[in-house]
Design goal:
It contains 3 helices and 5 strands. The chain is of the alpha+beta class. Strands 1-3-4-5-2 form a 5-stranded antiparallel sheet.
Amino acid sequence: MKIGDAYEWKKAVTPELTAAALGSGALPVLGTPYLIAMVEHAAFCYMNQFLEDGKSSVGTLVSISHVSPTPVGMEVCVRVEVTGISANGKLVDFSASAYDACGLIGEGTHQRAIVTAEHFMDKCQKKLEV
């Protein structure tokens, strides 16, 4: 992983990905929560190709502006670019942009942390003991 690396991921908008289906709105257009999930997925896929066995990455911060609607049936292309890596290499910052055939639909930033999967899940499951 290095600053300047970029990764693109594409997905068509289906009825299940709409604001109306999720309940985050009433209209049958790409829901903002799904746009955020697409950004996270692209960054996850980028990082996953570099991680050792037993490691994973988790989202820690998302700031996305959803600036234009996308109808069902249209493809969305999400592009993430590494803009920063912490000194210890555990935090990776991304700029993100998303486009449909008509232009920009969203942009912002995302941060992911590298974790040891087993330790992370053990910590999570301990919450059930409270």
